[in-house]
Amino acid sequence: MSKLFGEFKLGDITLKNRVVMAPMTRSRAIDNLANDLMKTYYEQRSEAGLIITEGVSPSPNGLGYPRIPGIFNEAQRDSWKPVTEAVHAQGSKIFLQIMHSGRVSHEANLPEGGKVIAPSAIPAPEPFNKMYVDGEGMLEVSQPQEMTTEEIKSTIQEFAITAKLAVEAGFDGVELHAANGYLPNQFLNPKSNQRTDEYGGSNENRNRFVLEMAKAAVEAIGASKVGIRLSPYGVFNGMGEFDGIDEQYAQLAEELGKIGLVYIHLADMSAMTQVPVPSEIKETIQAKFGGTIILNGSYNAEKADADIEAGKAELVAFGVPFIANPDLVTRMKDGIGLAMPNQDTFYTPGAEGYTDYPKA
To answer: Which residues of 297-356 form beta strands (DSSP E)?
Structure first.
């Protein structure tokens, strides 16, 4: 039997298979709350051994996109309880992805009192310098404010508080989103981090925010409940290669291993961006981390099983195929052809292109 469809022990939980549903922004959270439509969406896709939710903000400052959920107060926490209950009733596990958009934001999408913050006052470059705002269309991203040391410390604590709220909401754990050009990734990359204090200027200093965030989350809920997503060489949202990138990510992976995180989830968007991610950096991160690796990036069942068999990863995440195929695991297992998603409805409100894709 294919390893992809067999059980796997992740920390203190057992996954019914090694198929992970990757986190994907879907913009259906009206008033930044989870709702019945979202419950149906995740329940439909509970064939996955592990579901990682769309990015959920730990702060009013992190709600950079329209209609993305938050989980930084009790009402938001409680709105997620029906989601976790529905997924667990289907025998699946679910982690909440904590995502702070940082400079990838427009102030019109933030609640009152929210502000666009970043390691340095450098806005996202073209072609990532536009943000959709409901009723106004695509606008230039807002100029970010450089974070003070105090704001950095308080933001790290926001991640820890959200981790606690997630567990209270019934999530099996959290994934810290340090990939794809969002706030933690902005600290890692000198293209967006030109600080001269202890959070910038060297590999060790640029890693500091992510490591302190990871430690705070582990102190809040335990290492077996905390994973992280990284995207070395990813160019999304103005990131990309820089001098010393391999050494920096090797150091980061080793330190994350010492903290004891339950997994590293490596995002590879090269099929979308046409910028390759070297296999060597994935191998280095795996070796330095020493724990569970989730690979992600244009996988099918055969490639996923081959990489698991070859020891390149323990779990494989599938993103876009889950949008149009709620029964993706059954389709892959039985060799049933996949339905194609409608990209025009990826981020639109309502059920169309969200919960109306049929099972085979």
So the answer is: 315-318
C-alpha distances out from residue 330 to 8, 47, 59, 141, Å: 18, 8, 37, 41
**CA 120, CA 118: separation in Å to the nearest integer?**
5
The token pair that represents 142 in the structure block: 């807002």
Per the prediction, the chain carries an average pLDDT of 97
pTM of the model: 0.98
- Find residue 139's DSSP bridge partners: 131
Tokens 């922004």 belong to residue: 25
Tokens of residue 24, six digits = 């994907």
Task: Give one word for 31, left, alpha or beta, with left for phi > 0 and alpha for psi -120 to 50.
Answer: left
The DSSP string of 64-111 is -STT--B-SSHHHHHHHHHHHHHHHHTT-EEEEEE---TTS--GGGSP
Q: Which residue in 41, 42, 182, 233 is the catalytic one?
A: 182
Alpha-carbon radius of gyration of the chain: 19
pLDDT digits (tens, 9 = 90+) for 96-111: 999 999 999 999 999 9
CA 53 to chain centroid: 8
Q: Quick check: is 199 catalytic?
A: no
- The tokens for 148 are 């003070």
What is the per-residue DSSP string for 214-279?
HHHHHHHH-GGGEEEEE-TT--GGG----TTHHHHHHHHHHHHHHHT-SEEEEE--HHHH-----H
What tens digit of pLDDT does each residue of 173-207 get? 999 999 999 999 999 999 999 999 999 999 999 99
Q: What is the mean pLDDT of residues 337-353?
A: 97
